[in-house]
Specification:
With 165 residues, the protein is of the alpha+beta class. The chain is built from 6 helices and 7 strands, in the order E-H-H-E-E-E-H-E-H-E-H-H-E. The chain starts with a strand and ends in a 7-residue tail after the last strand.
Length: 165
């Protein structure tokens, strides 16, 4: 079942993100890897900045996956999409993505690491396409607040509502 996350879920969101992000270690540039991958302070600042999480819970109400959405002017950003390691490959990420994207007319953008081939494949399977290197840089500067080094190592994918000017 998918439900909105609330303040009481912050610790679980933090644990899910840092558990799942271990897949990045040794894959993304070493200078971009942190342990923990996302600090609790950064997670709190993301929520304060408008990232709204939805969570997938099992029959015992255990949070197994999370995906954030953030409205930015004329688009929605998918932010911080993670599934606990023990619950991967069960369709949880796909259900969360489908849930967030339904009944919305604005385009969706997703930024991820270029080296995270599994994430890029996941989004491509769900209809998202690489916007290209120049548009990636432009979009990351317009809609995200990430350092230049992260921009160099990232890719942006868009759904079919995105019109590349």
């Amino acid at each position: 079942m998918i439900r909105p996350c609330n303040d009481g879920d912050i610790q679980d969101i933090y644990e899910i993100i840092n558990d799942a992000a271990k897949a990045y270690k040794g894959v993304i540039p070493d200078d971009q890897w942190h342990d923990p991958y996302m600090s609790s302070g950064y997670l709190t600042s993301e929520v304060e900045d408008g990232v709204v999480f939805q969570g997938f819970v099992d029959s015992d109400n255990n949070l197994l996956g999370v995906m954030g959405i953030q409205e930015k002017c004329d688009v929605f950003l998918i932010r911080h999409a993670y599934v606990r390691t023990l619950a991967r490959r069960q369709g949880i990420g796909g259900q969360l993505l489908q849930h967030l994207c339904q009944n919305v007319e604005k385009p969706f953008l997703i930024g991820t690491w270029k080296a995270a081939s599994w994430a890029i494949s996941f989004y491509a399977k769900h209809g998202f396409k690489d916007v290209g290197p120049k548009e990636t840089v432009r979009l990351l500067k317009v809609y995200w607040s990430v350092p230049t080094r992260q921009i160099e190592s990232s890719i942006v994918l868009a759904d079919d509502r995105w019109k590349n000017d």
